[in-house]
Design brief:
5 strands; 5-stranded mixed sheet; alpha+beta; Tetrahydropterin Synthase, Chain A; binds nickel (II) ion
Length: about 140
């Protein structure tokens, strides 16, 4: 069984490699490379795989899941300029892929229990593009 909870945050970023010129960065990242940055409304969907507890009927306490998403993702990233305020994006280019990888990293340490595990992180950067990271299972 797969269970998914969504969270949203808004953050600014710029995608550029400082050792490259503005022209080279534009060639790689287009308008995303603008030095002053720009914002996105991100939506993250976090999917757990597990079986419902025979007594409670819950795979995981969803109040607890909501609190973990708030603490690990929304509070540290919402209304931040990722490159300057949220490590590792001072060193790692905050593309959708890398932001998704960081979210996976932050959650995989917390979201595992006897009856469930983290199965997928899906990160939307706006309505049209998303990245999936899975644990080898396709929910
Ligand atoms: Ni962008």
């Amino acid at each position: 069984m797969f269970i998914t909870r969504k969270a949203e945050f808004s953050a600014s970023h710029t995608c550029r490699i400082e050792s490259l010129s503005d022209a080279q960065n534009f060639h790689l990242y287009g308008e995303e490379s603008n030095r002053s940055g720009h914002g996105h409304n991100y939506t993250v969907e976090v999917t757990l795989e597990g079986e419902p507890d025979p007594i409670t009927g819950m795979v995981m306490d969803l109040k607890e899941l909501k609190e973990i998403l708030e603490r690990e993702i929304v509070e540290p990233m919402d209304h931040r300029f990722l490159n300057f305020e949220v490590p590792p994006f001072d060193k790692v280019v905050p593309t959708t892929a890398n932001v998704a990888a960081e979210i996976w990293k932050r959650l995989s340490g917390t979201l595992h229990g006897e009856s469930y595990r983290l199965a997928r992180v899906r990160l939307f950067e706006g309505p049209d593009t998303y990245v999936d990271i899975t644990n080898g299972v396709r929910p």
